[in-house]
Amino acid sequence: MSTEFVAIHRNGPLVEIVLDRPENGNLINAEMSDAIIAAVSSLDDEVKLVRIGSSGADFCKGRQSPMPAADAKPSAETLRRVVAAPPLALYDALKAVRVPVISVVRGAALGVGCALAGVCDVVLAADDAVFQIPEMERDIPPTLVMSALIGRVPVKTVAHMVLSRQRLSAAEALQAGLVSRIVPAASLDAEANALTQTLLGCSAVTLRAVKQFLHLAPEMSATGASGFAAHLAATALSARF
């Protein structure tokens, strides 16, 4: 399901999502969000990988504001439904994908763009990428973006980004745990393709096992995580016979 501003392609076991609104920094609107949710919520068992990228100079500069007019005096419930629920649904859908999700980030990843990158399992960033959570410049608590990052990025990193509103360079984002790897901007597409081929060389059951462990093990006790690891490994290996 593609829309005017997001292209979604199935290439064998790969589902590729490309934000395609470069004239305004790939701001995400409701239609784009719905298309991404629909795509990642209906993956069949042959899919091994989801990759999220962008066209143009920037990954995503945030979200097209859905705020009602100032004189509308919306209720808290209206704001929850119109403003809060859509991005939370997007983050939850990406977290729930059974296979690895990688984001390929160049240029600016701001606000929702930062969350969209961070909620992925692997973040491959160009050396010119920048990450920022600027909402408090408008006196808005960015709890929606924070909900995407908590549990994936250290709490102190999230706190500093939110409270300081400072932009992190790709190197700073790597050090802070938001980025998995940095590559030269000119090599980003080639590196992303190489990583994609490496992952696609594995079976879907192995990739799903890795994703399950990454998602669930951090909340388990050491004993529980060990037992879960054994279960997943045995299940994946048994699929070969």
TrEMBL record:
Annotated SUPFAM superfamilies: ClpP/crotonase (SSF52096)
GO MF annotation list: enoyl-CoA hydratase activity
Enzyme class, first EC level, given as a word: lyase
A Pfam cross-reference name: ECH_1
Keywords assigned by UniProt, alphabetized: Lyase
Region forming the signal peptide: none
PANTHER family registered for this protein in UniProt: ENOYL-COA HYDRATASE (PTHR42964), POLYKETIDE BIOSYNTHESIS ENOYL-COA HYDRATASE PKSH-RELATED (PTHR42964:SF1)
Protein name per its UniProtKB record: Enoyl-CoA hydratase echA8
